[in-house]
Amino acid sequence: MGACGCSRHSELSIPLDRASFGGRGLCYCRVAQTDLPAGASPGERGMWGSPRTELAGRRSWKGPRGISAFTFTLQGAANAGSGGAVPPSRWARQQVPAPLTQPGPPRSRLSYVEINISKARMAALFSTLPFADKSSLMMMMMTISILNVAVSVNNDHSSKNRETADVVSGNGSKPFPWDKMRLPKHVIPVHYDLLLHPNLTTLTFTGFARIEITVNQQISSVILHSKHLQITRAAIQRRMGNSHTEEVVMVLEYPPFEQIALLAAFPLHVGQNYTVSIEYSANLSESFHGFYKSTYRTQEGEVRVLASTQFEPTAARMAFPCFDEPSFKARFSIKIRREPKHLALSNMPIVKSVSVANWLVEDHFDVSVKMSTYLVAFIVSDFKSVSKMTTSGIKISVYTVPDKINQADYALDAAVKLLDFYENYFSIPYPLPKQDLAAIPDFQSGAMENWGLTTYRESSLLYDPEKSSASAKLWITMIIAHELAHQWFGNLVTMEWWNDLWLNEGFAKFMEYVSVSITHPDLKVEDYFLGKCFDAMEVDALNSSHPVSTPVEDPAQIQEMFDDVSYEKGACILNMLRDYLNADVFKAGLVQYLRKYSYQNTKNEDLWNSLAHTCSAGDTQEGQLQGDGFCTRNQQTSSSAHWTRREILDVTTMMNTWTLQKGFPLVTVTVKGKTVHLHQEHYMKGSDSSPSTGYLWHVPLTYITSKSDTVQRFLLTTKTDVLILPEEVEWIKFNLGMNGYYIVHYEDDGWDALISLLKKNHTAISSNDRASLINNVFQLVSIGKLSISKALDLSLYLKHESQIMPVFQGMNELIPMYKLMEKRDMDDVENQLKGYIVNLFKDLIDKQSWNDEGSVSERMLRSSLLLFACARKYQPCVDKAEEYFMKWKESNGTLRLPNDVKTAVYAVGAQTIEGWDFLFSKYRLPWFNTERNQIEVALSISRNKDKLQWMMDQSLLGDVVKTQDLPHIIVFVAKNPSGYHLAWKFLKENWNKLVQKFELGSASIAHMVIGVTNQYSTREQLAEVKEFFNSLDEKSSQLRCVQQAVEIIEENIRWMDINFEKIKIWLQNNM
Length: 1071
Ligand SMILES: [Zn+2]
Known about the structure:
single chain, alpha+beta, Immunoglobulin-like, 36% helix, disordered N terminus, protease, endoplasmic reticulum, Aminopeptidase_N-like_N
C-alpha cells in the first residue's frame, strides 16, 4: 500500500500521473491544467479514538513530575493468593490503598501504580531517538502512564465482576524494563488467538488476545506493542508438567514507544512454551488506520456504519496487543462477534459461525498461514459480494456497499485473470483458499494488500462501464495488479524491516507493468512506465532525498518511507536490472528468491544473491556464459569488450550503487569522430555545478545511433570511460526507452543533432525516447548545463507529436513554467507562454472527437488535452463544452455525457455560480459516485474564492465532502491562481487539525505540504514558508516533506532568476 505525493511542477494532474498506476493513492499530479479527477489520493488519518490510556470515567492524577498515574483496584475474584498471583509488594515500591470512589463490593485485592522515570532512562531514551524532538519527547514522557494491574487469579477470562478501578496517586518507582523502540528478539510469537467484538452503535470494541510465545533467553518480562488499548487483564500461562498455571501479571505501558511490558513474577525459561493472554477494550478509530469506523449513505439517504482495518505499517497494535514488527511472523486464528444483519470478513474463510446470543453471532475464521501483523485484516459490514473461481480453484470475491454491487464485475474479472497470471508466473501457488477484494467507503491510500482480504478505496475498485473514464479502468487494473503482486512480494516474502520497504513496494509497482501488459494488452501499460522514473527523479534530485534502503525507527519515519523513492525508484531500478539481465534470467532469479524465502523475511542482499546465482552456474569462462536469456545474449554481444567482463555478474555490487546511495547519475556523452567519451556525476538540483558527493554508479548504458537501431550495451562503472563506435555517426541516443535510471547530456553539438532529428523525422526514435529527451533537456536546464532556449527549441517539434507520453511530458515541463508566473503576477510573459503552449498542441486538440472512442491511451490523451484547452480558454473547446453543459443542465443531469470529456465540460460549467451550484447539487447524489472526483476537479477550478474556501472547509468537516478527499482538494485549490493564497492559509490555520487527522509523516501530509507550496518562487514566499514551519514543533519542522518544500522553492527562485528574461526573449523570437 502507500500513499502519494506530487511532482514539483504538477498542476491539477492527469490520469497518467505516477499515482494512477500503483498500489497507492491516485493523485493526479503530472502534467496539465487538464486533468482527471483524483480517484484516490493520500487519504487521511483521523484523530485517535481514544487518546489516553486511563479507563474511561476515572480520575487521572498528575504526579509530582507531571506524570499521570493510575491505580486500579480490583474487586470480585476472590481466590487471591493461589497459583501465581502477583504479590503487590513485589512490584509496588510504596503501596497506597486505593480509596473507593463509589460504593461497591469489597475489594479483595488492591493494586498500585508506581511511576518513576529515572534520569538514566531519560538519557537512554534520548540516545535511542536520534531524530526525535527532545522537547516533544519530554512532553510525551510527562504524560506517560504506567498501568499496574494486579489481579487475583481467575482463570476464567470472561468473569463478569472481575474488576473495577479507582485512580489514586502513587509515587512508587517501576521503570519500564525496555528502552528501545524495536522489540527485543528473545520472545517469539508463534500463534495468535484473537476474539474481537466491535459495537457499531457505541463505536467501541472489546478484544481478547491469547498469544503463544517461545523464549530464547530467560526473561522476566514480555514486551510487546499496544496503542490506545485499555487493558483490563493480562496473564501468562505456563505449563508445569501436565497442568497449566496462569499468573495474572502487572502491565506497564510506555506510550512514547507504543509498548507494554507484562511483568512476570517468576522467570520465563528458554525452551518452554508460554501463552500470554490480554483482555482489552478501545474505541473504534476515527482515523483511517487501526480498527476504524467508516460510514456511507444509502440511496435512500440512511447513514450506515461499518468497521474495517488498516494496519500497515504500525497500526495492528491499535486493534490488538502484538509483536508489531514485520519479522515477527505468526499464525492467526481470528473470531469476530457481530450482529446477525452484518457479515464479517478476515484473511481466511469462515469455518463456522455460532450464535452466542439472540442478537450476536460469532464467526470463527480458519487458521492463517504464517504472516506479519501488518497483514491481518477484518471487516464488519453489510456489504454484498460477487464471486468467481480462478482456474486453480481459488474463490475470488469483490465486496462493496450494496448499492454499488453492480460496479464490481470489472474488478472481479481483472482479479481472476491477474491471480491466474501470478500463480503461473511465479510458479508458486497462491496459498489461501480465497481472495476477497473489498471497497471501503473511507480509505486513506489507494489500497492495501492484507493477505486474502485486500482493501481498496471505492474509486480504486469499482468500475461502472456506463460512467467510468478510461483512466479509471487503467487505474483499477493496475492497483489490483499491485495488491495481488504483494500476495507474493510482501506477504509470502517480507522485508525484514521497514528500511527495505522497497522490496515490497518497488516490486509490487514493477509487477503491475509485467502482469497487466500480459493480462490486459489493450491497456498498453508498458508505454507509461517511464513516467514512474521521471516522478522518482523529481524528488530524488533533491538533497533531501534518501537512499532506497534507509534506516528508520519510529512510526513517523516509517510512514515517510511510503514515498516515490521506495515505490517508483524501486520499480525503475528493478526494470533497469531486468533490462540488463534480460527478462528470463530476471524472472528465474525472482522465482528462486520467492521460493527460498517463503514465509520468511529478507534484506537487499538476499535478493541480489538470488538474481546473481541464476546465471553464475554456467559462468566458468569469461564470455562463455551458458544458458538462456542473458547468458546467451552475453555471448552474442561479446563484440563489446566491456560487456563480457566478469564483474557484469556482480549484481550485488552493481545494485548497491543504486540502493545504498541517494540520487542518480547524469551521464555526459561527448562524441569525437568514432570515439565516445563518457563521464558520470551525481545529478543534484540546487546549484549550477554538480556537487562532489563522490558517488559512482554502475550504469548499464544502452544506445542506438543514426547508423544502427540495434541496441548496444556498455557497463559504465568508473567516473569516465570511452567507447569506440564502428563508424562515425550523425547522432547517438542513450538510455533506450528510458529503461535506465539516469539522464544523459549530449555535449558539443550532440543536442543540436537530436533536435534536428526530432524536427525532421521524430518517429525515427520511439515515443518513449522522445519523451525521455524532453525530460532530460529540461533537467539539464535546471542545473545550468543547457540554456532554456535550447530546451524550448526542442519543444517546438511537439507541434507534430501525437503520442501520449511525449505530449504529456511536454505539458509536464512547459505548464509549470507559467504556473510559477501565475503566482507572481507576471501577466505578459505568462500569457505569451500560455499562448505558445496552446498553439503547440492546437492541431492535436482540434483533432479530438468528443466521444469515448479509441484505445485507452487515445481516450486519456483526449481527456487531458480537452481539459487543458478548456482551462486555457481555447475558444472552440470552451464553446463546445458550454453547449454540452447547458444541455446536461437542462436535462437535470440525466443526459449521458461522454465519460472522457466530462471533466472538461464540468470545468467550464463550474465557472459560473449557477453552474457551480448545479454541479455541486449533483455531486451529493449517490448515482454520481463514479464521477465525484471529476466533479471535485471542476469545482476547484472556479475563480470564486468563497466557493473554494467552502469546499476546503466542507472536506475538513467530512459530511458532504469526504475527508479522504481533503488532501487533493487543497492541492487542487493551491494550483488555482484564485485559490493558492486560500490553500496556504488553510494549511497554516488548520495545521494541528490536519496532523491530528492525517498523522505526521504520512504521505497525505507530504502531499499537502508540497502540493500547496511547490509553485512558489519568490524570496518572500520562501521566508513565509520557512517561518511557518520553523514555528512548529521539531517533529513537524523536520519532516522530509518540509525540507523538500523549502528546497523546491529555493530551486524555483534560482530557476526564475536565471531563466525568466531568457524565456521572454525566446517567446518574442518564436511566436
Ligand atoms: Zn504496495
